[in-house]
Write a structure and sequence with these properties.
- It is a single chain.
- The protein has 424 residues and is mainly α.
- The chain is 77% helix and 0% strand.
- The protein has 21 helices and no strands.
- The longest helix has 31 residues, at 21-51.
């Protein structure tokens, strides 16, 4: 009775998703892992600041944030031959188990007094080694579970779950670090991935089966790990979206390093304010993400370029010395603008990629994008030490606006260029 009432209260586009038993069971487990990662937005950074040697907090912070994501790109290439034949559900479960074990070692090492900065970075790096495949498995699993007409709504819900976790997770982390060490919050993140691994293991169907047939009609099963990138090169629109997203994430990286130091050094505040920044960003992103279905009626490129420019403009006031209430409002608007980006991007990839290639292509996409943010974060440490956090935030915003303008100029030039003659 309650479930039926809840379904009727949902917007019409989302009702069919909750009629699907597999998706209905999977979504809470995905939300639990998203919440764990939401807390880690604050916990990973704050623990790095706590254990860093004097004068090295910026460098360790950049290294820790990079280690939490960058090895996933290497894992996509190194383990592609082994993993590309696995069903999406098994990929998601494998990534979840590794994250549960290695992130779980962080609070254990902290409790025993052995959490050296090098060990901390190593554990974070190991936990992310299958992240590209796990992320590809998540969206490929949903694409296989649901008919094509429901994928955009499902992607919007998954994106909204991530955004909602940034509303709840950082706020919860900001409150809890006043009571317990951030190491224990990373332990809760590990527990959330253990829950996800168990739930995925209980699903049944071809997407989560024990094996897939090696012979696909298009020969995808015999391709090397770089095959997904080669397919992307034959899809100019997908490749353009991927390139734009890479630079977008790269320019965001320094901002993620600078924001915690802006809170501590410029504003002389604590983890609660950092959590509030991410909470308001996530609140905006939840609202923005749920509008993705309506935005699909507009041309792809104007929407994506507008999102990039809008986020950049939201960062510029930091460099103007705006007070915290103003920059909090800007961060909220930035989340609102950014919200639809992920759902639109994944839906486009799902629609334009053959089903047999989807996991491989999404893993290649994740591998490419996983190099962007961490490289930007690693660069953000030295830049923040040199320029100061406020200047880095403003420079990141200005460069992002310039990226959107450059993308618009290239797009206009490509539309004016006459079509090339067909190859003979």
């Amino acid at each position: 009775m309650t479930a039926a009432l809840t379904t009727r209260l949902l917007p019409r586009a989302y009702r069919p998703l909750f009629a699907h038993s597999g998706f209905r069971r999977l979504l809470p487990a995905l939300a639990a892992s998203d919440l764990g990662d939401g807390m880690s937005v604050v916990a990973v950074a704050w623990l790095a600041i706590e254990i860093a040697p004097p004068g090295r907090s910026g460098l360790l912070l950049g290294a820790a944030l990079a280690a939490y994501a960058l090895p996933g790109a290497l894992g996509a290439l190194l383990f592609g031959r082994l993993l590309r034949r696995l069903p999406p559900g098994r990929l998601l479960a494998a990534d979840s188990r590794i994250r549960a074990v290695l992130l779980g070692c962080v609070p254990l090492a902290w409790a025993t007094g052995t959490l050296h900065p090098v060990l901390y970075v190593a554990l974070l790096a190991g936990s992310s080694v299958l992240h590209a495949w796990g992320n590809a498995g998540r969206y490929s699993l949903v694409a296989e579970m649901l008919p094509a007409e429901h994928r955009l709504a499902a992607n919007a819900l998954l994106s909204a779950s991530v955004s909602a976790s940034i509303v709840i997770g950082p706020a919860l982390a900001g409150f809890l670090v006043a009571v317990v060490s951030p190491a224990w919050l990373i332990g809760l993140d590990a527990l959330s991935f253990a829950v996800l691994a168990v739930m995925v293991g209980r699903l049944r169907g071809p997407a989560v089966g024990t094996k897939v047939e090696a012979g696909t009609g298009d020969g995808a099963g015999a391709q090397p790990p770089s095959a997904g990138l080669r397919l992307l090169r034959r899809q100019p629109e997908l490749l353009g979206v991927l390139a734009l997203t890479w630079f977008f994430n790269f320019l965001y990286g320094p901002a993620e390093v600078a924001l915690p130091l802006h809170v501590t050094d410029d504003l002389h505040a604590g983890a609660g304010l950092l959590g509030l920044y991410w909470t308001l960003f996530g609140a905006g992103a939840v609202l923005g993400g749920l509008t993705a279905g309506a935005l699909r009626r507009f041309p792809l490129w104007p929407v994506t370029l507008g999102i990039v420019a809008g986020w950049g403009l939201a960062l510029v006031p930091f460099g103007l010395g705006a007070p915290a209430p103003v920059t909090l409002a800007c961060f909220t608007l930035g989340g609102l603008v950014y919200g639809p980006f992920t759902a639109l991007s994944y839906t486009l990839f799902q629609e334009r990629t053959p089903a047999a290639w989807l996991t491989t292509v999404l893993a290649a996409r994740s591998a490419a994008l996983l190099t962007a943010g961490p490289v930007g974060m690693a660069l953000g440490g030295p830049l923040t030490a040199l320029m100061g956090p406020r200047a880095v935030l403003a420079a990141s915003g200005a460069a992002t606006v310039a990226l959107a303008l450059a993308g618009a100029a290239l797009r206009a030039r490509s539309r004016r260029r006459p079509a090339a003659a067909p190859a003979v």
